[in-house]
Write the structure tokens for this entry.
Amino acid sequence: MAVEQTLSIIKPDATRRNLTGKINARLEDAGLRIVAQKRLHLTRGQAEQFYEVHKERPFYNDLVEFMMSGPVVVQVLEGEDAVALNRKVMGETNPANAAEGTIRKDFAESIEANSVHGSDSAENAAKEIQFFFSRTEIVG
Ligand code: IDP
Ligand code: MG
């Protein structure tokens, strides 16, 4: 294990319900440090590009619309094994399959409106962090 950084997004379903603080508490309680954070409204271009890997999936267009439907909070999380740890704290994509005590189990509305994004590998984390943050915005 090593200290890693990962990209997290608090999605529009969660900002709409004023859950930013509750979700941040879950992340911090798990040992992740929020070393960068900003609230923004994704443009269509940003949402399309961020989820480009899913372009051929049937849910892509709806996902892009959903991610533009309200503000998001993008953040860089740092900690031991941060990529895998964040995925564990988030829970499965479909809240119906998510373990007890995970963010998605407790807060997600649906498989689409599932409250949080987290990078799925160290390689993708590096790309996704760069997509939203400059180096000077990340303060460890
Ligand atoms: P992940 O967020 O758990 O990594 P991915 O498979 O990468 O899941 O999917 C990206 C996002 O696309 C999900 O978080 C969710 O918002 C949405 N999504 C995934 N699968 C479905 C689906 O079957 N129907 C609708 N939306 C989906
Ligand atoms: Mg994913």
Q: What stands out?
A: The beta strands are 3-10, 33-40, 72-80, 116-118. Helices lie at 12-16, 20-29, 44-50, 60-67, 82-90, 103-107, 122-132.
